[in-house]
Amino acid sequence: MNEVGNAEARPGSSHVAEVAAVELRLTAGSEFLSTVRAVAADLALQQDMTLDEVDDLRLAVDEACSMLVPLAVPGAELRCRFSLAEQEIKVRCSVPTITGELPSTDGFPWQVLVTLTDSVRCDVKRSDGDSGGVVWIELTKGKVDRG
Amino acid sequence: MTQRRRDPARSESRGGYDHLAPLFVELRALAEDDPRRAELRERLVTEHLPVAENIARRYRNRGVPHQDLAQVAAVGLMHAVDRFDPDRGADFMSFAVPTMVGEVRRHFRDSSWLVHVPRPLKERHASIASAAADLTAELGRSPTPSELAGRLRMPKQEVIESLLVAGAQRGTSLDEPSHDDSSASIGDRLGTEDEGLADAENRLALRPLLAALPERERTVIVLRFFHNMTQSEIAARLGISQMHVSRLLARTLAQLRRGLLTDG
What we know:
The structure holds two protein chains of two kinds. In chain A, 28% of the residues lie in helices and 31% in strands. Chain A is built from three helices and five strands, in the order E-H-H-E-E-H-E-E. Chain A starts with 17 loop residues before the first strand and ends in a 5-residue tail after the last strand. Chain B is mostly helical. The longest helix of chain B has 23 residues, at 36-58. At the A-B interface, helix 1, helix 2 and helix 3 of A face helix 7, helix 9 and helix 13 of B.
């Protein structure tokens, strides 16, 4: 269940250098997602993304968390780690789940994520604990060429 | 204050208006073209005005002048007088109060702010919205906070804070002139046949959900997620602002999500 330490060394991560990071931990409930949306928008604005990109990121994070919340062990903690780099923001949302089943990647919600981001993937990290494993969705939103 | 049944001016309790109840029966009994209709209607509206005032006062200090709210509540009162049917057995107040409250709430939702925001902030937002529209046209994409700050000669942090406040004002109209709300013509501008969409709808089992959406919401979803247009492109195409598109998308996605969940 120790996600944070893996953030840099994760296989398959892009080679973009992380400049700063913000991590949120909150009870996995849809009523708390407004906090995640507000943080997503603020960070994207602080990173000087365009208004379109800011909204895409906010909607994408909202969608990703909304996919995870129903999978969560009741009362479990949803984590959202915003990793800021020069040209992009990467967000990894994760939650301990009952079954370890992944969110569906052939429905409309996933299409929403794909459309709103530059890359998105999901997987499960199995653990020996009583939960079915920590399911995560990681998405990246880059800045367009400002030309 | 003692409240007496026969003294409507002193009383805002339901009891204070009971003596007017027979007038509704009388009003309903009159023929459509009876000149006394207008007279009775006016009397009923005027006598009940203190109730409209009272409702308007409950929404004071939310950034809308009391006079405006009193007028909106009075409009609700007129609707209530026109629609009330004494034969249904309910008393007028239990019909009229929700009608007036509904009218006031709609006013907040359509043309105003749900919470009180100091006026300078609102003005600042209006200037940001207008600069954003200009810059989008010039750059061919939406601007960044730095670009907005440069254009407005405003500290970037102020721009960001203002945009965040605007984002928190979901469902309210900050920058939209009311004609933006005409959804009827969007279908014309969009065109109707769309084969790629039909495929996607089938693949994603979206058809019933999309069909349940109002046309404008459906259009925005289709353009964003099936035609891959940016919010600014959609805004330009539909003649509304990017921020408006943003609010529509957020709201509609949440709505679709609920639909997808309940449909299993």
